[in-house]
Each structure stands twice: as C-alpha cells, then as structure tokens.
C-alpha cells in the first residue's frame, strides 16, 4: 500500500540519524577507554559490513537489509572521531588547516555521492546496489592504511600516562626534532582537565550558565536542516 511504502521510505531515511545519535552519544566513553585509532578501525569495519549488507539487499530481495545498513552507517559515520584524530596528530601550525579539511571532505563526499546517484551513473535500476555499497570503499582504504599510523599523542599521554609512547608517536608523525614544547602543552591540558568537571548531556541541559549558549546551538543546528540545503 502507498502509505506503507511512504512509511518505509521515511524510516529508511531517518534511521541514519537515529544511528548517528547513538554513535555520537557513546563516543566519549569509547575514545577514552580504547583510544581514537582503535575506535576508527572499528568504525571502518562497521562501515564495510554495512556496505556489504546494503550491496546484497537486491540479491536477497530484502529492504530490511537497507534499513540495517543505513543504521550501521549512521553509528559509524557520526562518531566524531575523524576530525579529532586528524587534529591531534597534526603539528600545531597545521592543526587549524587539518581540522577544516574534515568539513571540506565531508561536503565533497556528499556531493560526489549525490552526483554518482544520478540515473545516468549509478542510480539506475541495475547499479543502485553498487552505489549503496560504495561507502565501504573509503572505509576499506582507511582500514588498510590506518594501522601504519600511531595512536593520538594526547591520548597516550593524557589517558594512558605513556610519555615514551607519546614521544615516539610525535617523532613518527612530525619527524625528529625538539618537541618538548608540544608535550608540555599536552601536560598543561591534562592538568586543566583534572580541575574541570565534565558535564553529562542532562547536566548540561540543567546548567543555568549554559542555557543561552545551548539555545543558540540548538536553533542554529535545527535551522540548517530546515533551510532547504538538503533539497539544494
């Protein structure tokens, strides 16, 4: 029935955001416990599995597989790790540039996906499973290359207390040289965090001092979604 089809399409689109909500909610606990590199590797595995499930949905004649794959993609993509890891492994003079590239490539990826989804390219009746599975390609590339990179130096020093591991990671990333100033900066940040209370989402919503900042962020985020940019 047409109403059921509309409902299924709506769920297929929105379940990505539900997965993203779960992924971003648990990101702080996971990154502190396991580190950003390990979490990124797990994210890549999750994305490859999701891509495989969606790519096989037509052969299996199962729309449920698309729902499951979209949910897993949301969990994987919306854990905010990529820009954190890139920012932490970058030298100070390149950190701002490195952080801004995450947003650039996010937008570029969306544009490439929308162009590839045209009927003349991969959006045809025969090729759309390939389009659904294409999100696994960048995940596979990162899964193969990321093991050659070290763990984030701030994570090693601040959460693991591994000063030697931190120095080794810095030398591997930035080359040989005197990096004591960067290590001192990380130690200062660690000392600051010890005296700073980390608020949960519920505590943040109850905190009067942050009420107007929270209103502004919510309104800005909501209006970006409602301004028609997705339709454009």
Descriptive terms for the model:
232 residues; MFS_sugar_transport-like; Growth Hormone, Chain: A; D-glucose transmembrane transporter activity; transmembrane; 2 domains
Percent strand: under 5%
Number of domains: 2
Mean pLDDT: 84
Number of helices: 14
Topology order in helix (H) and strand (E) letters: HHHHHHHHHHHHHH
Give the total of beta strands. Answer: 0
| CATH class membership of the largest domain | Mainly Alpha
Largest sheet: none
- Percent helix, as a range, is over 70%
Low-confidence stretches: none
Name the CATH superfamily assignment of the largest domain.
Answer: MFS general substrate transporter like domains
Dominant shape: globular
In the CATH hierarchy, the third-tier topology of the largest domain is known as Growth Hormone, Chain: A
User: In whole angstroms, how far apart are the ends?
Assistant: 30 Å
Task: Tell me the Rg in angstroms.
Answer: 21 Å
Q: What class do helices, strands and sheet pairing give?
A: mainly alpha
Going by CATH, the architecture of the largest domain would be: Up-down Bundle
Organism: Balaeniceps rex (Shoebill)
GO biological process, one term: dehydroascorbic acid transport
Domain Major facilitator superfamily (MFS) profile: 1-232
Membrane topology: Multi-pass membrane protein
């Amino acid at each position: 029935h047409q109403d059921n089809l509309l409902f299924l399409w709506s769920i297929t689109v929105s379940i990505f955001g539900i997965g993203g909500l779960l992924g971003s909610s648990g990101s702080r606990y996971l990154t502190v416990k396991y580190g950003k590199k390990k979490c990124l590797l797990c994210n890549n595995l999750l994305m490859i599995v999701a891509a495989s499930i969606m790519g096989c949905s037509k052969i299996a004649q199962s729309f449920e597989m698309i729902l499951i794959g979209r949910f897993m993609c949301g969990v994987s993509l919306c854990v905010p790790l990529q820009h954190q890891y890139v920012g932490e492994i970058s030298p100070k003079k390149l950190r701002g540039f490195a952080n801004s590239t995450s947003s650039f490539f996010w937008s570029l990826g969306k544009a490439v996906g929308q162009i590839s989804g045209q009927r003349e390219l991969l959006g045809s009746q025969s090729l759309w499973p390939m389009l659904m599975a294409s999100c696994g390609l960048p995940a596979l590339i990162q899964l193969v290359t990321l093991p050659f990179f070290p763990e984030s130096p701030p994570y090693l020093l601040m959460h693991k207390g591994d000063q030697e591991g931190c120095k080794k990671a810095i030398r591997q990333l930035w080359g040989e040289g005197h990096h004591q100033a960067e290590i001192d900066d990380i130690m200062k940040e660690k000392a600051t965090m010890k005296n700073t209370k980390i608020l949960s989402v519920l505590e943040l919503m109850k905190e009067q001092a942050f009420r107007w900042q929270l209103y502004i962020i919510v309104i800005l985020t909501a209006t970006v979604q409602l301004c028609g940019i997705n339709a454009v």
